[in-house]
Amino acid sequence: MELKGAIFTTAVLATLLCSPALAQKSPPAPASVALPPTMAPAPAPAPDYVDLAALLGVAGPFHTFLSYLQKTNVIETFQRQANKTKEGITIFVPKDSAFAALKKSTFSNLTSDQLKTLLLYHAFPEFYSLAQFRNLSVLNPVNTFAGAPYTLNLTDDMGTISVKSMWSKPTISSSVYATDPVAVYSLNKVLLPMQIFTKDPPLAPAPAPAPESGASDLAPSPGGKAGAGKGKADSTSAAYGIGVGAVNCLLAAGGLMMLLW
Ligand SMILES: *[C@@H]1O[C@H](CO)[C@@H](O)[C@H](O)[C@H]1NC(C)=O
Ligand SMILES: *[C@@H]1O[C@H](CO)[C@@H](O)[C@H](O)[C@H]1NC(C)=O
Ligand SMILES: *[C@@H]1O[C@H](CO)[C@@H](O)[C@H](O)[C@H]1NC(C)=O
Ligand SMILES: *[C@@H]1O[C@H](CO)[C@@H](O)[C@H](O)[C@H]1NC(C)=O
Predict the structure, then answer these.
(1) Burial class (CB in 10 A: 0-12, 13-18, 19+), 173
(2) Is there an atom of ligand 4 within 6 Å of 166 CB?
(3) pLDDT band per the 50, 70, 90 thresholds, residue 199
(4) How far is the CA of 101 from the centre of ligand 2 (A)?
(5) Does ligand 3 have an atom closer than 6 angstroms to the CB of 135?
(6) pLDDT in tens, 64-91
(7) Ligand 3 pocket residue status of 54, Cβ below 6 Å
(8) Which of 65, 101, 183, 192 could form a disulfide with 167 if both were Cys (CB 3.0 to 4.6 A apart)?
(9) C-alpha torsion sign, points 135, 137, 143, 148
(10) How much is the pTM?
(11) Percent helix, percent strand, percent coil in the chain, to nearest 5
(12) What are the boundaries of each domain within the chain?
């Protein structure tokens, strides 16, 4: 039968075309390629489920923050919030180097409740794009996921956005992921609220600590359009690359079907 032949050819071609993307972990060509042929290729829905652990695992490096999230199970709380597509979540993730700059005892001395609160302090239970921070700074202090007394102040110094806690004022060094409902921004320092750290936590004996540029916090932000943030989503999770690849394959297969029809 001609039709069967066409379908078979399509399946074989699609398998050949798609296997580099799909074969990553499953060497035998997946049977799923031979899907029942639908004439109209379904419009690819934007993936609104973001696997935070997977995202943080490939970006960064954010291993320290991720391991604390997993140890305390706060990752579950964050993921549940990320799944709420109406509200979403904004997470400030300090890089491994930010944790390394502080003495180990800074964190090992914390009770598990304090550690949980500290992690929740690094997030807003709502999605904010970098552009929205400009408006958000009018609302300082802004409540975090940790609840009422745990607030952050956002400042925008000519396009450099800082997140101010009592003992640290990290800047957003990059936007790791920023697609509603999930925003993940990388910080160069850990946020240190006064409710947990009654005094400025000591730094680890660093090789050569860069001196703080004593920039004035009081400088009014001129609302210039100068260099807002550094790129919208410089490193999107590799996991999505695979997902998108699969969708492209299906579309390609659909296209082939049409040709061979
Ligand atoms: C979030 O959504 C995904 C996909 O629907 C689901 O597999 C996962 O269990 C959800 N996680 C939480 C913590 O709600
Ligand atoms: C952690 O606890 C130890 C022992 O109680 C203490 O000597 C040390 O100063 C504490 N470190 C911090 C950063 O609070
Ligand atoms: C910021 O606020 C102004 C005035 O209220 C509004 O026009 C603008 O759309 C807001 N920008 C963002 C990114 O929310
Ligand atoms: C945050 O901003 C508010 C209002 O401007 C101010 O009262 C508060 O002291 C600031 N907090 C920090 C930690 O800078």
Answers:
(1) middle
(2) yes
(3) confident
(4) 16
(5) yes
(6) 999 999 999 999 999 999 999 999 999 9
(7) no
(8) 192
(9) negative
(10) 0.66
(11) 40, 15, 45
(12) 2-45+240-260, 52-203+219-236
Q: Does an H or E element contain 157, and which?
A: strand 147-157
Closest CA to 220 of 165, 130, 156: 156
For 207-231, write each residue's pLDDT tens digit. Answer: 655 555 444 333 333 433 333 333 3
More confident residue, 180 or 256: 180
Q: Is the dihedral of CA 204, 78, 143, 134 positive or negative?
A: positive
The span from the CA of 121 to the CA of 45, in Å, is 32
Specify the residue with its C-alpha closest to ligand 2, atom 8. 105
CA proximity to 147, closest of 169, 167, 117: 117
Q: Cβ–Cβ contacts within 10 Å for residue 175, how many? A: 20
DSSP 102: B
**Cα-to-chain-centroid distance, residue 232:** 12
Rounded to an integer, what distance in angstroms lies between the CA atom of residue 28 and that of residue 42?
26
Ligand 3 contact via 131 beta carbon (within 6 Å):
yes
**If you measure from the C-alpha of residue 238 to the centroid of ligand 4, how many angstroms do you get, rounded to a whole number?**
38
Torsion of CA 199, 204, 208, 213, to 10 degrees: -20
Please tell me if the CB atom of residue 139 comes closer than 6 angstroms to any atom of ligand 3. Answer: no
Place of tokens 């997030």: 123
Q: Supply angle C-alpha 16, 20, 25, rounded to 5.
A: 120
Compute the distance between CA of residue 137 and CA of residue 140 in angstroms, rounded to an integer.
Answer: 5
